[in-house]
Write a structure and sequence with these properties.
37% of the residues lie in helices and 16% in strands. The N and C termini lie far apart (76 Å). The strands form 4 sheets. Strands 3-2-4-5-7-6 form a 6-stranded parallel beta sheet, sandwiched between helices. A 6-stranded parallel beta sheet has the order 11-10-9-12-13-14, with helices on both faces. The chain has a 6-stranded parallel beta sheet with strand order 16-15-17-18-20-19, sandwiched between helices. It has 20 helices and 20 strands. Helix 1 packs across helix 2, helix 3 packs across helix 14 and helix 8 packs parallel to helix 10. It has 567 residues and is of the alpha/beta class.
């Protein structure tokens, strides 16, 4: 084959892997790769972001939506460190992702040259929170090998991020090698003996409960999970911020297990005698701070099914650990023969009744009725709309009251960071709009929005459209809530003086509107769905409305009554 520069070969390798969109901020360290995107522009799009954190979030969101690695390109030093928030999100959320970092030239390495960083030290597996693998490509002829390995590593076992450093002098070398074929994820199948044991454990149970979630699910796997649950008439809860794993409208759905957990659901998990955790790694949020399931050995019998053998028995010593990917596990489970009658049908019906009861809101002050607004979103958003959020108490309105139809219906509909990264929702929705063309909706807080609100410019530049519902209460609400619990009436570091969000949205090319009453919302939502460009709807929210269940004043009064630290 004819020679080409390595930067072009790199892009050709991405095309071979099926990459359609790459997110990034340009840098002089990888100009040769940018030229490659120009050369292959009809087959792959370089989405120009305004900050590397937003670019990394978009790549992570793309990985969540597709199940294949989202790709991000950044320059060395500050570019890479800005992108680290997306890498950490991909790690904790088990999302396949590949971050390419334009690096210093080989002949000046290890001199602390301009913007030099040791990426193995910064991102390496030794950090236990960033990348699964970090490598540097010094030989341009090995680009196909490194790219294929990065994609395989990102997808296999517990999915996650991989970082590849690209020395700028390597990218201009001339090479005559070809890309390697597209890499597919390897499927790990359940051990037949373990499945027999699982069936025996089910037959011995009286109060079983399924927790489904984590990454690696496809519509086919979700459908198989649903058939398994129906065959055995099991109650199913979804893990923290994986609320679209099991259909929320299903008669056996018990609710989501995460922040703001329904107290009755929390008790039900504790009261169960067999927990089947299918997919989640059982992190802090899904286990209520390791209290719903006590670590390292739960009171309940525990069956843990996970794609990574290294994850099994790492935190929880399971009674039965099964190493299987979700597609394989669900297909194995759906063929487990169930008896004609089961002793826990009332238990399952009660779990669903508790979920429906939790959809009934508490009375809260102010002119904005957030449960009613979520009801209007449920009514008017398409069922395949992608719903995104960052981190903050504002997200709990959607978590509690919005019902996802689930992957079994064919589409992933929730993008949310299990690592609690603020600023995720805005770029995630834009990535969804760019790459799927589906309706993309974000709920954000005022503090959360300003972490990555600049990416509205990216949406406008790409002709993409998202709808942002911005709840403005003039503070970092989650931290203020905790502050009042621990140090009542000692406000410090949590108040916000905000810009005019309507004018800011308009400056980015979005339509901007502000509402102060619930009755104003429906018309604005319908208009946002109809107009060709994106829309930001600012909702002026009473600061007292701090959670879906109570007020800030009630939290303060309770803290003062018990003699809080600041009293």
């Amino acid at each position: 084959m004819s020679k080409q520069i390595a930067g072009h070969l790199l892009v050709q390798c991405l095309v071979e892997q099926g990459v359609s969109h790459v997110f990034g901020v340009p840098g002089e360290s990888y100009l040769a790769a940018l030229d490659g995107f120009h050369a292959y522009g009809e087959r792959i799009q370089f989405v120009v972001n305004r900050q590397e954190g937003g670019a990394a979030f978009m790549a992570e969101a793309h990985g969540k939506l597709t199940g294949r690695p989202g790709v991000c390109f950044v320059t060395r030093g500050p570019g890479a460190t800005n992108a680290s928030i997306g890498v950490h999100t991909a790690f904790q959320d088990s999302t396949p992702m590949v971050l390419f970092v334009g690096d210093v030239a080989s002949d000046s390495r290890d001199r602390e040259v301009f913007q030099e960083v040791d990426y193995q030290s910064f991102f390496g597996p030794s950090t236990k929170g960033f990348a699964k693998r970090v490598e540097r490509i010094d030989d341009a002829r090995r680009i196909p090998e490194y790219v294929a390995r990065a994609f395989a590593t990102a997808m296999n076992g517990r999915p996650g991020p991989v970082v590849l450093a690209l020395p700028e002098d390597m990218l201009v070398q001339e090479v005559d090698v070809a890309p390697l074929p597209r890499v597919e994820a390897v499927q790990a199948w359940s051990d037949p003996g373990a499945l027999r044991t699982l069936r025996e454990m089910l037959l011995a149970a009286r109060r079983p409960f399924v927790i489904a979630g984590g990454s690696g699910w496809t519509p086919q796997a979700a459908q198989a999970l649903q058939r398994f649950a129906e065959n055995w008439r099991l109650p199913v809860g979804n893990a923290f911020r994986f609320q679209d794993t099991f259909d929320n409208w299903h008669a056996q759905y018990a609710g989501d297990i995460g922040i703001g957990l329904n107290p009755k659901l929390a008790q039900r998990v504790k009261d169960s005698d067999l927990v089947l955790a299918i997919g989640p790694r059982l992190g802090e949020m899904t286990t209520g701070g390791y209290t719903l399931l006590q670590a390292p050995r739960s009171v309940q019998k525990l069956v843990h099914i996970h794609a990574s053998a290294e994850e099994l028995n790492r935190v929880y010593q399971a009674d039965l650990a099964i190493n299987a990917t979700m597609n394989a596990a669900a297909r194995s489970l759906e063929v487990l023969t169930a008896p004609t009658s089961l002793p826990w049908e009332d238990w399952t019906q009660a779990a669903h009744a508790d979920y429906l009861e939790n959809l009934q809101p508490q009375a809260l002050p102010g002119d904005i009725d957030m449960p009613a607004i979520v009801g209007l979103l449920q009514k008017h958003l398409p069922t395949d709309a992608v719903v995104t959020n960052g981190a903050g108490n504002f997200a709990s309105w959607m978590h509690r009251f919005f019902r996802h139809h689930g992957l079994a219906k064919g589409h992933k509909t929730q993008l949310a960071p299990t690592n609690g990264a603020m600023g995720y929702g805005v770029p995630a929705a834009i990535a969804a709009a760019i790459t799927t063309g589906r309706t993309a909706f974000t709920i954000a807080g005022d503090g959360d929005f300003l972490m990555n609100g600049q990416e509205l410019a990216t949406a406008s530049q790409c002709g993409a459209k998202s709808i942002v519902l911005l709840l403005n209460n003039g503070m970092f609400g989650t931290i203020r809530m905790h502050q009042e619990r621990e140090y009542p009436q000692h406000v410090s570091g949590t108040a916000l003086a905000n810009p005019d969000f309507v004018k800011l949205a308009e400056a980015y090319g979005y339509a901007g509107v502000r509402i102060t009453r619930t009755a104003e919302f429906e018309a604005q939502l319908l208009a946002a769905l109809e107009r060709p460009q994106g829309t930001l709807i600012e909702v002026v929210l009473d600061p007292e409305v701090i959670t879906t269940r109570g007020t800030l004043r009630a939290i303060t009064e309770a803290a003062l009554k018990r003699g809080g630290n600041g009293a």
